[in-house]
Amino acid sequence: MMQLTAWAILLPLIAGFLLLFARIGGLRLQRSLNLLVVLGLVFISFELVKLSLTGVHQVYLSGNWIAPFGIVFVLDQLSALMLLITALLALGALWYAIATKYDQKGSHFHVLFQLQLFGLNGAFLTGDLFNLFVFFEVLLLASYGLLLHGNGRLRTKAGLHYVVINLIGSTLFLFAVGALYGALGTLNIADMAAKISIAPAEDLGLIAAAGLLLLVVFGVKAAMFPLYLWLPSAYSHTSAPVAALFAIMTKVGIYSIIRVHGTIFGIEAGDLASFYTPWVLGLGLITLLLAAFGVMASRGLREQVAYLVLASVATLLIGVGLNSPQALAATLYYLMHSTLIAGGMFLLADVISRGRGVHEDRYESAPIMPNAILIGSVFMFGAVAMTGMPPLSGFFGKVLILAAALDNVWFFSVLGVILVSSLLMIIAMARAGSLLFYRTQPVNVLPGEPLNRAAFSAVIGLLAASPILVIFANPITAYTESVAIQVFDSATYIEAVLSTPATQKAE
Amino acid sequence: MEWLMAIVIGVMTSAGVYLTLRARTFPVVLGLTLLAYAVNVFLFVMGRLTIGQPAVIDAAATGYADPLPQALVLTAIVIAFGMTAFLIVLALKARGEMGNDHVDGLHLADDERLVEQTPSQTSQETKL
After folding, report:
1. What are residue A366's DSSP bridge partners?
2. B112 band by pLDDT with thresholds 50, 70 and 90
3. Distance from CA of B92 to the nearest CA of A (A)
4. What is the C-alpha separation between A274 and A257, in angstroms, rounded?
5. Chain B touched by A23 (CB under 8 Å)
6. ipTM score assigned to the predicted complex
7. How far is A464 from chain B (nearest CA, A)?
8. Is the Cβ–Cβ distance between A247 and A123 less than 8 Å?
9. How far is CA A13 from CA A110, A148, A243, A297, in A?
10. How far is Cα B26 from Cα A254, in angstroms, rounded to an integer?
11. Rounded to the nearest 5°, which phi and psi values hold at A59?
């Protein structure tokens, strides 16, 4: 079963190269191959989730080199969960891209899509800090291509900003990795965590600085204040399927903070134990407030959804910053919800934009779009889920996070910021809905293209995650709790990684 | 020698930061390249400075140079090289599409007007 872990990374890589050659066979072949591989990834990640439920860390030694010397891939419940969310989101985004024929707008959409999944899955599975950097670069390079797919002046401008800020982030990542290697003499995350408790006192300052530098890098990915300015323009100017897939990209930053900081600066790190959490919590609170203002101030639906993504990331940062297994369990529940719903909302914004013709998604009076009642109901549903109103999953996620914050000294700030920002977002979404669906012009001509039912099914599919998360809330929260307990038990992680023996050749 | 390396890295980084903050795309590309050079040297130095020591196992050796940073630097150089190439192409595309090489494209007011022109004209047509 060890091989299955490796296949979650290898399959998209091989598929990416195959798709490059499949261009000769035409778009049809590329589409079916890509869809088949994504379905395969969904299957693999379901299997991996089942496998991880045993609570044993599955360690894959690449090249059969034992742990601190070789690169290891570690599958635990958290990685398995992230893989599953990625695969499901990718399925929805890909289906939408195929149904709207978006992939025809330029070559290599399918190749880049698979390489993006390769980078994402690798980042979620690797147990080595430098390898994490390499997978970050892979997923970033693929994302540059996807972001710029299709054309447009504003897209190029937003893409340029996105590329430059991520290149600076990569440079900072290398500085942090170099400093940590200089101080600890290892790059394996488990080994670093083991070495940090015996590091000499004069090195602690350097290690803390490197740790905070890493937080900046992951903050750029996760769009943490003050590093979030690239997100709204990049997400709102790119195409809908790509924006939907990018809903997982910010979560890579969150995952990295949980994995790298949570393990290296865990409870056993001596003086540096959890020294980063006040930063994450405080910056998360500021990000959430600014995101709520951004939601209020948006002039178009796509921009608004981008700010809603920012708000969900900020809520996740708060959950991580609370730093308890209970809070982490709530955070992971909210992460599942927010990733899939945000993906669905980006697709829905595109459906609305197509239905309104030249008015696109801007908040201005336009003729009634085709199938306005159906689209409007789905919009209402998505808005309720996204802003966190009962009875959908956003509400439960926020309640769980607030319940976990009860014992924290920051409780009243957390409570105030989350509730006020939710109120602002509810007001803004109500305004958006009434502008889009009620303030219409009495014109007999339908302005936009008719509803693409195949594409719309992708929206429904992703938004269906919300009622599922509510109906099965009990088993799912039990699962996220077991994930959180496993993440906080970093001693077992370190033990599992460092003690895995190399497989012996059969004599 | 540590002092010399520290000064070299510091000067390269500060020059890189200065150029990255410029408003035209070409200096930004140069700045990112300088930052990449600085971080490569920094990574290399993190294995400590040793002279004349073998990096791989040698029976006659008295000590070893750390081989890992050399491998890391090699990876980092390749990645930075690819990224710079991509950024140059993107900067050229931006120059072609936006009409100048300012990182924000045209003057902001022009930009907004261009965006708003199309829909307002068409909405008047539909009203008529």
Report:
1. A440
2. low
3. 11
4. 11
5. no
6. 0.85
7. 34
8. no
9. 12, 21, 21, 41
10. 33
11. -105, 125
**Residue in B closest to A187 by C-alpha:** B68
Q: For residue B32, is it within any domain?
A: yes
Contact A329, A484 (CB under 8 A): yes
CA distance B52 to chain A (A): 20
H or E segment and range at residue B51: none
β-bridge mates for residue A60, sequence order:
A73
Contact, B68 vs A69, CB < 8 A? no
Q: Provide residues of B within 8 Å CB-CB of chain A.
A: 20, 25, 28, 32, 35-36, 39-40, 42-43, 45-48, 68-69, 72, 75-76, 79-80, 82-83, 86-87, 90-91, 93-94, 97-98, 103-105, 114-115, 118-119, 122-123, 126-127
Higher pLDDT, B42 or A64: B42
Q: Does the beta-carbon distance from A144 to B103 stay under 8 Å?
A: no
pLDDT at residue A446, as a whole number: 64
* Token couple for B114: 């261009």
A159 — contact with chain B (CB < 8 Å)?
Answer: yes
Q: What is the CATH number for B122?
A: 1.10.287
Determine, for residues B72 and A177 on separate chains, whether the beta-carbon distance falls below 8 Å: yes
Q: Are strands A58-61 and A72-75 parallel, antiparallel or unpaired?
A: antiparallel
Cβ-in-10-Å burial (0-12, 13-18, 19+) of A1 comes to exposed
What would the two tokens of residue B18 be? Answer: 């200065």
Best mutation target, B90, B107, B113, B117, to test chain A (most A CBs within 10 A): B90
CB A268 within 8 A of CB A491: yes
In this prediction, residue A394 has a pLDDT band, given cuts at 50, 70 and 90, of confident
- What is the reported pLDDT for A372? 82
**Spans of all domains in chain A:** 276-493
Q: Flag if A364 and B123 touch (Cβ within 8 Å).
A: yes
| Per-residue pLDDT tens over the stretch A454-467 | 888 999 999 999 99
> A147-194, pLDDT tens digit by residue?
888 777 788 888 888 999 999 999 999 999 999 998 888 888 988 888
pLDDT tens digit sequence for A297-342: 988 899 999 999 999 999 999 999 988 889 999 999 999 999 999 9
Comparing CA positions, the residue from A57, A60, A2 lying closest to residue A492 is: A57
User: What is the SS3 assignment for B102?
Assistant: strand
Q: Does A161 touch chain B (CB under 8 A)?
A: yes
Residue with tokens 């990209």, as numbered in its chain? A249
On average, the pLDDT of chain A sits at: 88
B62 domain-assigned: no
Q: How far apart are CA A303 and CA A57, in angstroms?
A: 40
- In terms of DSSP bridges, do strands A366-367 and A58-61 run parallel, antiparallel, or are they unpaired? unpaired
Query: Angle CA(A4)–CA(A125)–CA(A183) in degrees, nearest 5?
Result: 140
Please count the structural domains in chain B.
1
Q: Which DSSP state fits B24? A: B
- Give the model's pLDDT for residue B122: 40
pTM metric for this prediction: 0.90
Kindly state whether residue B96 falls inside one of the protein's structural domains.
Answer: yes
Write out the two tokens for A479. Answer: 């699962």
Q: Is residue B91 part of a domain?
A: yes
Q: Looking at the complex, does the CB of residue A434 fall below 8 Å from at least one CB of chain B?
A: no
Q: Which residues of B touch A362 (CB under 8 A)?
A: 119
Are A153 and B68 inside 8 Å of each other by CB? Answer: no
In terms of residue numbers, what domain contains B15?
2-51+67-127
